[in-house]
Each structure stands twice: as C-alpha cells, then as structure tokens.
Specification:
The protein is of the alpha+beta class. It contains 9 helices and 9 strands. Strand 8 and strand 9 (266-272) form a beta hairpin. The mean pLDDT is 86.
Length: 319
C-alpha cells in the first residue's frame, strides 16, 4: 500500500493534466450555477411575494422557504451530476487503484444497512444512503468503507414526516485479528466532558440502551471514550493497552467524533463528518494543495486502520 506522500505525489504527477482539464470545466460550471441560482432566487422571491400579498398567510413564507431550499438543492445536484461522475471516474478511481491493487471502487454503492445495524453503534435507521464504496483486501485483511448517511423518520400529529440524521460520515468495516464472541462498543465520551467525572460516570452507568459499562485503565483513553460490553473480560482482552493508545492517537489526529465496535470478529469504525468525502469541489480550485490533501487524507484515514491497529497481524487465536 502506498504511503501518504507517495499517494500525494501520484495525485499531482499522474493526475495533474486531468485535473487541469477538470478545473476548466469547474470554472464554467461554477459560473453557470451562480447565474441559474441568481435567476432562480429572483423568480422564487417574486412568486412568494405575489402569493403572500394575495392571501396574507404566514404559512406561505414558511412553505416558501422550505420549497426554495428543496427545489434549489435538487437543481444544484442535477447541475453537478455529470461533472461529479466524471471527477470520480478520472480522479478518485485511479487514486484508489494506485493505493492498493486489491481494492475496487464503486461510486454509486455504499456500505449495506445490514453492516451498519450489525455494528451496534447507532440506532436502526429508517432510511439510508451513501456512495463511494471501496472494498477488497489490504495486506490480507478484508476491508470495505464508504460514505454513509443514516436517518430516522419522525411523524407529527398532522401525519407529516420529518427526518433527522443518526450518522453521516465515513463508515469502515474490517476483519479484526482476534477471535471473540461478545460485543464491545466504544463511543465518544460526551457525558464526562459535559457533566464532569461524577455525574458523567453516573449517567454512563445508567445507559439502559447499552450493555455493562467497562472502565479501562488508560486515563487518556478514558477521557475520550466510553466502553460498553456484554463481556468485561473479553472487552479488556480486545482493548489492549496498545489498541487503546492507537485509537486515542487516531482520534486526536483526525479531530472528528470516532465510534468503534467489535462485533462478530470485525471492527466497525464510524467517523462523523458533515459532508460527502469524495465529492469534487465546485467553489474552490481542484489544483489547491488543501483540496488534494482532503482526498488523500480521507483514503489514508480509511485504509490506515489496517496498519494503525495492525489488523494484518494474525495474533492470539485468529486463524
């Protein structure tokens, strides 16, 4: 597997001519989006002003804003659809091919809902979506990851549905190098951070939706994570001092909420982001170093788990 610097070199040296062509298309597309967006906003504002002036109902304004955002979002996605597809085929796909030959990329697929639910990290969703599925082997360890969005449906007294996000970000599933039969879940420690040690610990121990609270002997790990498991001994067997230090380093490095579970001899890792990870930038240059590094960093975040946690080392009783 290529190192981060090798991947960055490949991005600039092998893909730069393609990026220059895509950059020209991006500028044209950006101008088109600004023009269409301006006309759309003026027409919609005049329409709402006219309707509101006729019936004087404040619900018109509420529904007008809702429709403006919904239709605007649909128009934007329609306008960037072809450009996004071309970017992924010409940039993301070869980037992944160069990283590891045993990985395959499917831009329109995502992690299955079954694996998301199996992880026990979040509540069961009512609707899922995602894209950019990568799957295959790295150093004899099976891995798959993708952007994933899970949502919960809410229905009010008038029968109207609304949706809230359960999880959105990068979701990774990989074989773990130890055999285990229980289920261990590692979550961000929000209770202790918010309410302090005494109340935070009490709230964690009263989490009825989880198994038994497991206290670990690594103070730095305990500050950042809370552990639940149906087997105290097995949880400590899986979360060795080495694994805890690596997960702590992993979380510090990327600075996003990190959720981990060990279920059915697999590690499930969810990194919470608020955007799709492999989408092309429309309003900033593809040639900027920062933009390039976002794609490279995301790939190394997902695949680096193999090396960071040494999942390829078949230790203990794993065959």
């Amino acid at each position: 597997m290529k190192s981060k610097s090798e991947l960055t070199d490949f991005y600039y040296k092998a893909l730069y001519p393609i990026l220059q062509d895509l950059e020209k298309d991006r500028k044209i597309l950006r101008s088109r989006i600004i023009s269409v967006g301006t006309i759309y906003t003026i027409v919609f504002a005049l329409l709402i002003y006219t309707v509101y002036g006729s019936i004087k109902d404040e619900d018109v304004l509420t529904w007008g804003i809702f429709l403006y955002v919904a239709i605007g979002g649909f128009i934007y996605k329609f306008m960037i659809k072809d450009y996004t597809s071309e970017f992924k085929e010409k940039i993301i796909s070869p980037l992944i091919d160069s990283l590891e030959e045993k990985l395959t990329y499917h831009k329109d697929l995502h992690i299955s809902e079954h694996l998301f639910v199996r992880s026990k990290l979040f509540s069961s969703p009512d609707r899922t979506s995602g894209n950019d599925l990568v799957k295959g082997e790295i150093k004899n360890t099976k891995i798959r990851f993708s952007d994933f969005h899970a949502e919960k449906r809410h229905r009010n007294s008038k029968g109207r549905d609304s949706w809230s996000t359960i999880f959105r970000g990068l979701f990774v599933v990989a074989e773990f190098n130890k055999n285990f039969i229980g289920e261990t879940v590692v979550l961000p420690d929000t209770a202790q951070k918010t309410f302090g040690d005494l109340i935070g610990n009490w709230l964690q121990s009263k989490n009825l939706g989880r198994d038994e609270l497991v206290k670990m002997d690594d103070p730095e790990f305990e500050k950042r994570f809370v552990v639940y498991s149906d087997d105290q001994i097995e949880a400590r067997y899986i979360l060795s001092n080495s694994i805890m230090k690596k997960l702590t380093t992993f979380e510090k490095r990327f600075g996003h909420p990190l959720y981990i579970s060990f279920v059915r001899n697999h590690i499930h890792l969810a990194v919470y982001y608020n955007k799709d990870m492999f989408e092309p930038s429309i309003f900033s240059s593809l040639l900027e170093y920062k933009t390039a590094m976002e794609y490279v960093d995301t790939l190394h975040l997902a695949t680096g788990i193999i090396e960071e946690l040494k999942l390829n080392e078949r230790i203990w009783s794993k065959v």
